[in-house]
Write a structure and sequence with these properties.
With 78 residues, this protein is mostly helical. The protein is built from four helices and no strands. The chain starts with a helix and ends in a 5-residue tail after the last helix.
Length: 78
């Protein structure tokens, strides 16, 4: 997992969401990347302090959210 992929997964990682395989990959990347650790700590601080309330999610995060909401509310055929 590279830095760009890790950055996209940090929010899910923080909340323990997503596939275990992805969380494990993020954890492994964070162990060896000081830059991504700092991004994670900044994100964690913003979430925990409430400062994140004014931040806009990244485009990949917005796309995942749209897909999740669409899947949740898609009418069932059965």
């Amino acid at each position: 997992m590279d830095c760009a992929e890790t950055e996209e997964e940090l929010l899910d990682y923080h909340f323990g969401a997503g596939a275990q395989e992805r969380r494990d990959a993020v954890r492994a990347h964070l162990r060896g990347c000081a830059t991504c650790v700092q991004q994670f700590l900044d994100l964690k601080h913003d979430i925990d302090s409430g400062a994140a309330m004014g931040l806009r999610p990244s485009e990949p995060a917005r796309a995942r959210l749209r897909a999740d909401v669409t899947a949740l509310f898609r009418p069932s055929l059965f």
